């Protein structure tokens, strides 16, 4: 059994099976699937898993990757420590 | 009775859920997907320590409902009741906390004033020099807003409610009174149309020809990387408007209380990130090394006098259910939705008198 576990999101420890289960539960658009499973919201912010998620969603729903789209990309691009942020950005 | 509800946030869904239980035939229209609006973008702070006395009975009732609802709809809301601390960083805000606690106690809230040293017992590594005084309520905490919305949606569907996502309401058909709505090219007959559209409520109200002048607020939030369970209570600094708590997933979720805006926007700014990081690390210096992973923004609304706008309007059958306000939407919505369902079915509910749209 162990060898059949296909990890698609390392940060949130999600398998392909779990993604498929969520889609079957009705979380069958990217934004809902992201929120329900936590995929793309971990430390990598989707860099490692987004394409896998889109592929699975495409295979399960028959929609093209173009139709599925991508999640909203939110700043920062890479994690930034709070002590760095606290030094900047004063514009008022 | 057929009811069309516009907005599948926590207010629209609570109203739908309790209406369905009272036997109404309900359809909920959501312009985007569930969680798109403020109900999916907030930090989940839950407390009856509110500085508007009119809302306190609803907060207390909602706390009871949050205990019951997860079992009723068979969905875990991930409500962690580890308390809520409001801190003041100025003498005048310390006086405000004292006044607020007196009012809260009179209305049955078990909140109390605590000294910085006691806050430190609740919030390890707090810099006690960064605050003057605090108030605390143990029957409070952090809820995960996403399962609240999913759970309510599940409960709605199981009670016969139809939720139509990606379906914006293009027209509210009014002839004398409300006749229905047009959405996605189809007409839906309805005796009652409920406007639970949050920040979009003013625009929705216009479609019914009813003037609504809720304030629109934009609020920015961020999360850090996950760390082991560290911070039990929800912490809100009323002087700086900065709040933070630890989510069920270990992230430190924090933001700054919303500011009034003219136009709906969910852009993120570096200015927010810097202001937040500065105050958060003054409060808890140990957070300095923690990295911010993601920031976002949400929009919500508040009645122009600061209170929600809930009830019948001058257009027969058109009902407002919006303006829930800063830091209060998640905690008042279940009870407010339940009372609104009663109002709609019975035609009257004295409990909602203070929120009537006709007060303006």
UniProtKB/TrEMBL annotation, chain A:
Transmembrane segments: none annotated. GO terms for molecular function: oxidoreductase activity. InterPro entries: BFD-like_2Fe2S-bd_dom_sf, G3P_Oxidase/Oxidoreductase, SoxA_A3. Residues 3-86 form the SoxA A3 domain. Keywords: Oxidoreductase. Residues 64-92 are annotated as: Disordered. Pfam families: SO_alpha_A3. Gene3D superfamilies: BFD-like [2Fe-2S]-binding domain. This is (2Fe-2S)-binding protein. It comes from Geoglobus acetivorans.
UniProtKB/TrEMBL annotation, chain B:
InterPro entries: FAD-dep_OxRdtase, FAD/NAD-bd_sf. The keyword Oxidoreductase applies. It comes from the Archaea. It comes from Geoglobus acetivorans. Residues 2-343 form the FAD dependent oxidoreductase domain. Keywords: Oxidoreductase. This is FAD-binding oxidoreductase. SUPFAM superfamilies: FAD/NAD(P)-binding domain. The lineage of its organism: Archaea, Methanobacteriati, Methanobacteriota, Archaeoglobi, Archaeoglobales.
């Amino acid at each position: 059994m162990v060898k059949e576990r296909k990890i698609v999101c390392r940060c949130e420890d999600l398998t392909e099976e779990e993604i498929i289960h969520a889609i079957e539960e009705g979380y069958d658009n990217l934004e809902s699937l992201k929120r329900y499973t936590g995929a793309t919201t971990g430390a990598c912010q989707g860099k490692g898993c987004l394409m896998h998620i889109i592929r699975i969603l495409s295979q399960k729903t028959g929609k093209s990757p173009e139709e599925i789209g991508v999640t909203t990309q939110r700043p920062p691009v890479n994690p930034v420590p709070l002590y760095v942020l606290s030094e900047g950005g004063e514009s008022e | 009775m057929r009811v069309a509800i516009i907005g599948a946030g926590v207010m629209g869904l609570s109203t739908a859920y309790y209406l369905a239980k009272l036997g109404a035939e309900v359809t909920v229209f959501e312009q985007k997907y569930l969680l798109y609006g403020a109900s999916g973008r907030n930090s989940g702070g839950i407390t009856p320590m509110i500085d508007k006395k009119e809302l306190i009975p609803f907060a207390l009732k909602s706390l009871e409902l949050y205990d019951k609802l997860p079992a009723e709809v068979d969905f875990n809301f991930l409500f962690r009741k580890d308390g809520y601390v409001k801190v003041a960083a100025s003498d005048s805000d310390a006086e405000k906390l004292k006044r607020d606690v007196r009012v809260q106690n009179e209305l049955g809230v078990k909140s109390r004033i605590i000294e910085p040293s006691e806050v430190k017992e609740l919030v390890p590594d707090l810099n006690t020099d960064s605050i003057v005084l605090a108030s605390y309520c143990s029957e409070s905490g952090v809820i995960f807003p996403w399962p609240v919305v999913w759970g309510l949606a599940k409960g709605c569907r199981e009670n016969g409610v139809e939720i139509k996502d990606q379906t914006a309401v293009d027209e509210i058909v009014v002839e004398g009174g409300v006749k229905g709505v047009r959405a996605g090219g189809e007409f839906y007959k309805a005796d009652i149309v409920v406007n639970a559209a949050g920040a979009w409520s003013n625009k929705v109200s216009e479609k019914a020809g009813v003037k609504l002048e809720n304030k629109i607020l934009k609020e920015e939030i961020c999360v850090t990387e996950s760390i082991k369970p560290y911070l039990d209570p929800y912490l809100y600094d009323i002087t700086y408007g900065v709040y933070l708590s630890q989510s069920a997933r270990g992230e430190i979720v924090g933001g700054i209380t919303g500011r009034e805006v003219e136009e709906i926007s969910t852009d993120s700014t570096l200015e927010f990130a810097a202001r937040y990081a500065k105050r958060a690390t003054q409060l808890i210096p140990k957070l300095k090394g923690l990295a911010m992973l993601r920031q976002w923004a949400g929009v919500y609304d508040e009645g122009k006098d600061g209170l929600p706008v809930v009830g019948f309007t001058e257009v027969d059958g058109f009902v407002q259910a919006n303006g829930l306000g800063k830091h209060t939407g998640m905690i008042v919505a279940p009870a407010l939705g339940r009372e609104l369902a009663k109002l709609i079915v019975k035609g009257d509910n004295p409990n909602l008198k203070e929120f009537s749209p006709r007060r303006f």
